[in-house]
TrEMBL record:
This is NAD(P)H-dependent oxidoreductase. GO terms for molecular function: FMN binding; oxidoreductase activity. PANTHER family: CHROMATE REDUCTASE (PTHR30543), NAD(P)H-DEPENDENT FMN REDUCTASE LOT6 (PTHR30543:SF21). Gene3D superfamilies: 3.40.50.360. It comes from Faecalibacter rhinopitheci. Residues 1-131 form the NADPH-dependent FMN reductase-like domain. GO terms for cellular component: cytosol.
Amino acid sequence: MKILAFAGSNSTTSINKELLNYATAQLASHDINVVDLNDYEMPIYSIERQASGFPQQAIDFHKEIKDADGLIISLAEHNGNFSVALKNILDWVSRIEMPYLKDKKILLLATSPGGYGGGNVLEVGLKTFVHFASGEVVASSTFPSFYDNFKEGNIVNEDLKVSIDEKIKTFENSLVAVEA
């Protein structure tokens, strides 16, 4: 199965990228394409800019989605919402095709340094990816207090590790079910 994975952040030191790397390492037997939002930087979406055509980065990101059977997304929370980098990409992609996640299985994660673990952006993500983009979020989780619970590429809080590993397994099983 082909999996597209990305952190919803353009930060080079993103904790969501670290959590994403943990999740993808658990699925090493699959064909995983981890992309960096920095490779898809483009003008801020507007109807006037769209009239001039789609940026190649939007076309490329849309193709990455279309080629994948499933997606792993670890959302960064910026003032309770998506990062501007992710929102802009999704605005462009949604104009290429809506719904752009139809028939895609999704593992949706979010983390933050605080105790709510990106819970606000996870709620936004569930609404966006399910209701507007028609994806199927088969598992989702927040990961609170990142710096206390994640060290050197591993989850050190055993309860959180069990929970995240279960979500990853649920996602993997959903992909296997599609393949069968």
